[in-house]
């Protein structure tokens, strides 16, 4: 996608309620994974986060449309 680590950090820091696309439970850990679909430079991207002591990015890529993806 051509995003630097700083770009990724800025996208995550800028996520808001309007970017939220729901949540799903991880089949592996049972933890809630929060899904966001922000517009980044005119491209909708898919961001999946698990919240722990700090934030862990599980998935970060171009949105492929459709429903939620399988757990990673």
Task: Describe the protein's architecture and organization.
The protein is mainly beta. It has a single domain (5-62), classed as YaeB-like fold (2-Layer Sandwich), CATH 3.30.2310.40. Helices cover 12% and strands 42% of the residues. The protein is built from one helix and five strands; from the N terminus they run αβββββ. The chain has one helix at 5-13; strands at 20-25, 32-36, 39-40, 43-51, 55-62. Strands 1, 2, 3, 4 and 5 form a five-stranded antiparallel beta sheet that branches. Strand 3 (39-40) and strand 4 (43-51) form a beta hairpin. The two termini are 19 Å apart. The relative contact order is 0.22.
Distance between the termini: 19 Å
Shape: globular
What is the CATH C level class, in words?
A: Alpha Beta
Largest sheet: 5 strands, antiparallel
Strand content: 35-45%
| Count of alpha/pi helices | 1
Number of strands: 5
Q: Percent of residues in helical segments?
A: 10-25%
């Amino acid at each position: 996608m051509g995003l630097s680590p700083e770009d990724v950090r800025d996208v995550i820091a800028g996520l808001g309620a309007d970017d939220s696309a729901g949540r799903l439970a991880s089949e592996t850990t049972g933890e809630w994974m929060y899904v966001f679909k922000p517009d980044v430079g005119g491209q909708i991207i898919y961001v999946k986060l698990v919240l722990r002591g700090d934030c862990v990015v599980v998935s970060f890529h171009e949105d492929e449309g459709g429903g939620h993806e399988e757990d990673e």
